[in-house]
């Protein structure tokens, strides 16, 4: 394998590596021939000795030929340039031998030619050529031996001795072997170093590519990451790009998917979503898509308009893609989209990203998948949320919430059979703040557990007075957040607190929504079973608002079923809705559950409700939530 690499390096790099060196040789040799030619005509200037016109002409001719080859560069094939150098050296050497015998510079010329062979020719060919050229003095020795050539005595008697010529050839042969061995050894080491450097460079390039990929691309989706995206967009902004748009896409419920199916499945969804977005924007130079990490993707769109983008978002549906079908995922993949216009809404990249995130916060609060464009008023909404968050922390620590109670009435006896505790909060700066506003802030701020404890403990402190006012037969309902419900040691905390305050657990009903079941259902079964074993009732709140309530009713034993207001709004004018309500009531009866109808606001709804088996209602028709204490 190494030998093949040697050959590869030699034969593929030979021309490229030796051509510049050979051109330098040609230039140097041309210059030397010019100097030699000048030396031959020095007697003409000094008037001493004879002018050697023959060598002057030969040297000057060869200087011109070699310089011409130097000027032609690669237009003359390498083999021709090497051959011309060899022929020149042989010619000069033969001429020198004939003119000056062993006293001339022929031996130096041959030695120069031998070195050139080993530098410019392949190993075997260079060795054979060197040995053949080294025999040139021996050839002259043969000619002297047969007296075909005789040198004048002025050149010395050694020139007419055949042995001197043979010894000269032997010395050249030894020089060829030693020089060849040395050059080939150096060349072999050089080739090894070249191979090593080449492999090292290849590894470095691969490592660099890998590092660049890690630094500039998302490891899951292989899309550009935030760093590369911001770099590209900043370059476009600096180049004076015209009106553009940025879209932020957020996948909803990825944490839930990870909890239900594992992180690996969630990663697959992110990967497939990245593929869908890449296919959707492929071969569109005006659109750049990137991954911001986690469950967010961002797009930069040029040469478009708000109308076109809104139409594209309506048509674009991840669930219609064959990679992300609801059948494959187990449910529909929901996502939110926010957008901003550059440079009208913002002209700096940091400001663009900030305002895009603000619009996404508004989009998350929406129910439908639609595009939410940034508007100036959104910033004041975020500022309000931040202020409320700070006040909420103080309110929870200071137990500053008030409790309003709404009655549950039996429509047959018209007696109050229960109360639902509802948190209320007000501030001097903002006035009354609805739960629809402050509960989401509490949830996002991870204050839901201390808030849940605060409300629970306050309701427990009211129970003795509630029993005095409404009778000991009532039950008090408390809404429990899914996060609080799944808090470690939730049951132990509840039971211990009730025992410490001597409150009968049978008075309490915990109302939970199906959001609580998004984690492992076995854990929920254990919590509900233990609560019911201690006498605390559990109610399934907002039944029908989600899509999985029937599945949970099959798995978990509840005591009460609260029908969501959306089922009751149109029962007075819609037979279809009434039949659906009636079916829910029959279902609850068959499972041994009490049913509560919430949101009853008029007599027409009440008349229709009396035709069903549901006889406990909650709504403005009978009572509004009232703050009884504090």
Automatic annotation (TrEMBL):
Sequence intervals crossing the membrane: 21-42, 54-71, 78-97, 103-121, 165-183
InterPro entries (alphabetical): Cyclic-di-GMP_PDE-like, EAL_dom, EAL_sf, GGDEF_dom, Nucleotide_cyclase, Rev_trsase/Diguanyl_cyclase
UniProt cross-references to PANTHER family, sorted A to Z: CYCLIC DI-GMP PHOSPHODIESTERASE PDED-RELATED, CYCLIC DI-GMP PHOSPHODIESTERASE PDEF
Domain (GGDEF) ranges: 242-376
Domain EAL: 385-630
One Pfam family linked to the record: GGDEF
PROSITE patterns listed in its UniProt record: EAL, GGDEF
Organism of derivation: Leptospira wolbachii serovar Codice str. CDC
One Gene Ontology molecular-function label: cyclic-guanylate-specific phosphodiesterase activity
SMART domains per record: EAL, GGDEF
Entry keyword set: Membrane, Transmembrane, Transmembrane helix
Protein name, UniProt field: Diguanylate cyclase (GGDEF) domain protein
Tagged with keyword Glycosyltransferase: no
Domain of life where this protein originates: Bacteria
